[in-house]
Model the fold of this input.
Amino acid sequence: MDKLIIKGGKKLAGDVTVSGSKNAALPIFVSTLLAPGQHEISNVPFLRDINTTIKVLEQLGARVDGNGNVVKIDTSGVNNFEATYELVKTMRASVLVLGPLLARFGKARVSLPGGCAIGARPINLHLKGLAALGAEINLTHGYVEAKAKRLKGARINFDVSTVGGTEHLMMAAATAKGETILENAAREPEIADLAAMLTKMGADIEGAGTDTIRIRGVEALQPASHAVMPDRIEAGTFMVAAAITGGDIRIHNMCLDHLDAVVFKLQDAGVEITHKDKVVRVKGPRKIAGVNIKTRPYPGFPTDMQAQFMALMTVADGASVISENIFENRFMHVSELLRFGADIVVEGNSATVKGVKKLSGAPVMATDLRASASLILAGLAADNTSEVSRIYHLDRGYEAIEKKLAGLGADIVRVKE
Ligand code: EPZ
Done:
């Protein structure tokens, strides 16, 4: 297992480029199951979760050729309709193969994903939506067994805003007979990126990115090529890295308007953010002001930036209240941040952070993807040396983050544990 060793106190400076979005690439890879032939996906980040998705597609019989950030996927030879527990338990987004397999082959057997560190994360709304489209769903021995002669369009209203549920049903409805309306759909930019890919494949989709999506089913889809959108959470993480070190960096290849809520909160905290074309300059202030945040579905403050923002608030001038409204257990970074000398009190789904003058370097342990990023950010600001272990969590969602941070002047190295 690897760990990162960070010598804190360096102000970050220089240029960094954002990679393609993990949370757009995963459903886009899955969507290739809907159309036999060779698809070409570019701007793909090098991540463990991408490799896991490739393994799932290969297990189903697809041929995948990846070289650098371009991945060719040929799903003509898909002849297996089962996604096993071994793979689904390592990456829950694999459950998204269920809808496309049903749509194209009329049957599928996919392991239930089980819980994860940040919460139970059920898929009841995915399954309820597929049943509304006419699928026969049975749960046996930890697997979803589904059948459908031909999916039929339906009106579906989500009890809660679900990114995966919206993506899943948009894919399943693309070749269903008739029209599907998704109400109270999630509005995250990754959904619009998936819809762009599906449209290139021949789907007829309106309203992706809003809370009502209309999908008119078409007879068949064709293979397509698509460049994945930039990763807005990676971009937001670098913005916080500049803020917490009092640095001054330029971030390339990011879409600022995907991060409005984060930008506004960073500006409230005193961070200077300007942009020209696709280059965003982020200048950290001498002193960070305490700011309250509540995580919300897009366009609210993203839950995937909550841990990173909390790290920033641990060295703010004043207090901040952070409430996590999406997942029931997404404060696992708190106990590790306390090891840096942070002052945080958690009550239910809210954490009160009182800024301290300085964090002190410490050995800490990553518990989930975004918690790992939060600990690195704290290490960058802490004095002396910090060690972050179990960074396999980090490798799921950040492409070579230690190299990118070192490129900005951070003193950070990866070593074998
Ligand atoms: C996606 O997860 C992202 N993952 C998550 O990013 C992100 O945190 C989350 O959306 C929220 O933005 C990918 O895109 C691969 P949800 P997803 O369905 O789709 C409840 C990261 O760090 N819910 O929007 O699984 C659920 O329990 C990861 O990159 C149901 O109750 O999230 C949660 O409380 C972490 N029933 C809420 O909805 C369902 O059927 C939002 O979950 C589905 C969801």
